[in-house]
Every structure is written in C-alpha cells, then in structure tokens.
C-alpha cells in the first residue's frame, strides 16, 4: 500500500539495516564533496529534512548554520528530540533565504516536481544541491516493495533535473554519480 502522506510514513517506518548501511556510505560520498566545495559558514536549508539525519551530518561536518524544513510534524518532533532548536526547523517554507538549499531524496516523490523545484529555488541565495536515486536504485526499491508499504517514487534522470533547474536561471556546476545516487550542485546565474 502507498502511504497517504509523509506523516503516516514517519509514524510507521524505520530504515532497515541495509538502508542505514547504504545511507552511511552515501553520506560519506556526499559530504566529502560538500566539505571540499563549500565554506562551512554558509547557511544551509535541508529541504525535506525528515527526522534530521542530513542536518546531523551537516553539523558533524562542521556546518553550524543549518536549518530544516519538512511538512511532517512527526518528523520535526524527532528533530527536536535530536537537539535541533525550534527556531532552526520549519513546518512551512521560511521567508528567509539560505546560501544552500539541499535536498536528499525528496524530488523523486513527485511526478510533477516543478512546484517543488520552484520552492527550492525561491528560498536560496546561491546554490541548490540535490541528491537523487539512480534508475538502478529506483528499480531495486520497486522490487523490494512487494513486501510492504512504500512512499510513491518516480524516476527522473539527471538531464531532467538540469533542464528543470535551468528554467529558474540555475546552471549545473557539478554532477557526481555512482550506482545508487547522483548529486548535482546548481548555482544561480548572475
């Protein structure tokens, strides 16, 4: 069965051991790139922060000006339990701008992702960074879903994201891809 919303997802699921292992490996790759690319004093909005895993990784990697946005109150409550302050997490898209808007595994949940991409672009000052599953990851996840609940996903390849972000005056400045994920860094054109 597909979850009706992300609130239900965060209430009823926990990542598997394999999922946690793969996420740790993926975070190593992501943050090696991010540490070498961005100064640590930039402000970061984790768009679709969930229970704060990526915010925690940003903090572990020396970024101290980290904020989170998610529509799930349950997920944001988990962020608070992890020590993130109320003024650092948002249940609505904030009116302030961030140097970096980062999302990990968010956009694939939308068949029509244009409004979500527009939201990413509207709350940044310089950069948008996305980490998305590859077609192989998507395919493997679909096979595993026969056994239970899932959140709907749609596969979009990197070219689709590049084209979509170009509509909002962004250019791709870096793309890194492995078997399971691809990371794209976009910068607003001057």
Write a compact overview of the structure shown.
The protein is an alpha/beta fold and 190 residues long. The protein contains seven helices and seven strands, in the order ααβαβαββαβααββ.
Write the layout of secondary structure elements.
Elements: H1 6-12, H2 17-37, E1 44-47, H3 53-60, E2 66-69, H4 73-81, E3 89-90, E4 98-104, H5 114-122, E5 124-133, H6 135-144, H7 158-166, E6 170-177, E7 181-188
Could you walk me through the main structural features you see in this protein, from its secondary elements to its overall organization?
The chain has 190 residues and is of the alpha/beta class. 38% of the residues lie in helices and 23% in strands. It is built from seven helices and seven strands. It has helices at residues 6-12, 17-37, 53-60, 73-81, 114-122, 135-144, 158-166, and strands at residues 44-47, 66-69, 89-90, 98-104, 124-133, 170-177, 181-188. The chain has a seven-stranded mixed beta sheet with strand order 3-2-1-4-5-7-6, sandwiched between helices. Helix 4 links the parallel strand 2 (66-69) and strand 3. The longest helix has 21 residues, at 17-37. It is globular. The relative contact order is 0.15.
Mean pLDDT: 84
For the biggest sheet, the summary is: 7 strands, mixed
Share of helix, binned = 25-40%
Describe the global form.
globular
Q: Roughly how many Å apart are the termini? A: 45 Å
What structural keywords apply?
seven-stranded mixed sheet; alpha/beta; 23% strand; 190 residues
């Amino acid at each position: 069965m597909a979850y009706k919303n992300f609130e239900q997802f965060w209430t009823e699921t926990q990542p598997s051991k394999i999922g946690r292992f793969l996420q740790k490996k993926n975070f190593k790759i992501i943050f090696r790139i991010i540490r070498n690319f961005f100064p640590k004093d930039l402000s970061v909005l984790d768009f679709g922060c969930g229970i704060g895993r990526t915010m925690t990784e940003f903090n572990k990697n020396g970024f101290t000006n980290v904020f989170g946005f998610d529509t799930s109150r349950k997920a944001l409550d988990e962020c608070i339990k992890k020590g993130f302050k109320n003024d650092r997490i948002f249940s609505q898209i904030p009116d302030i701008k961030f140097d970096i808007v980062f999302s990990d595994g968010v956009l694939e949940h939308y068949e029509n992702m244009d409004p979500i991409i527009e939201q990413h672009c509207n709350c940044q000052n310089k950069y948008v960074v996305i980490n998305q599953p590859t077609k192989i990851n998507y395919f493997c996840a679909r096979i595993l879903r026969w056994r239970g609940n899932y959140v709907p996903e749609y596969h979009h390849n990197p070219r689709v994201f590049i084209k979509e972000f170009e509509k909002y005056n962004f250019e791709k400045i870096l793309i890194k891809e492995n078997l399971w994920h691809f990371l794209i860094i976009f910068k607003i054109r001057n």
